[in-house]
């Protein structure tokens, strides 16, 4: 069979529209759904609808939540004087897995990318500035990804925060554990040297 049946092709195209899903993976997922029972397929569809309708943005940090405030912002055990600025909710989840950071977050929900038509006004930067004006913030850690867009966004945010009397830091970047120096690019090696610390 050279071509997929129309309903299967449409389902495959829906999966293909998701970030990071290639054509073969999309077809494989579509067949997985086809192999589900009707109840399983209904449950799967309901989970998608529930995620879309029940998840909102936390009014303080702009991360995802099922209530007005996310569990991190609502916690009285977190250090609310330190804000870690990240690109997206996935970054919050990644940092939380480490279990070493006890401050709160601010999610920009993207990065500045002129090529994609995303300027600072499309990010949650205004909300960050409001928090700094209204809360007792001592430090802002900028933890955007070390991409061209992430670096540009970090520079933009740090410049905006200069007039405030707070400490602004950037996460260190460098070599991952198990990496060989000979295979690292110059930018990674430069950041590894710059981010060195005493042992």
Structure report:
With 199 residues, the chain is α/β, with parallel strands linked by helices. The protein has two domains: 6-54, RecR Domain 1 (Helicase, Ruva Protein, domain 3, Orthogonal Bundle); 64-194, Dna Topoisomerase Vi A Subunit, Chain: A, domain 2 (3-Layer(aba) Sandwich), CATH 3.40.1360.10. Helices cover 44% and strands 13% of the residues. It has eight helices and six strands; from the N terminus they run αααββαβαβαβαβα. It has helices at 6-16, 23-34, 38-54, 71-74, 89-98, 125-134, 148-161, 186-194, and strands at 56-57, 64-65, 79-86, 103-107, 139-142, 167-170. It has a four-stranded parallel β-sheet. It has a two-stranded antiparallel ribbon with strand order 1-2. Strand 3, helix 5 (89-98) and strand 4 form a beta-alpha-beta unit. Helix 1 packs across helix 2 (23-34). The termini are far apart.
Strand content: 5-15%
Instruction: Report the CATH C-level class of the largest domain.
Output: Alpha Beta
The low-confidence parts are none
The share of residues in helices is: 40-55%
Counted beta strands: 6
Total number of helices: 8
* Named CATH architecture of the largest domain: 3-Layer(aba) Sandwich
| Radius of gyration from the alpha-carbon trace, in angstroms | 21 Å
Structural class: alpha/beta
Separation of the first and last Cα atoms: 62 Å
Shape: globular
Question: What do we call the CATH topology of the largest domain?
Answer: Dna Topoisomerase Vi A Subunit, Chain: A, domain 2
Give the neighbour order of strands across the main sheet.
4-3-5-6
Give the tally of structural domains.
2
Output mean pLDDT: 91
Outline the biggest β-sheet.
Answer: 4 strands, parallel
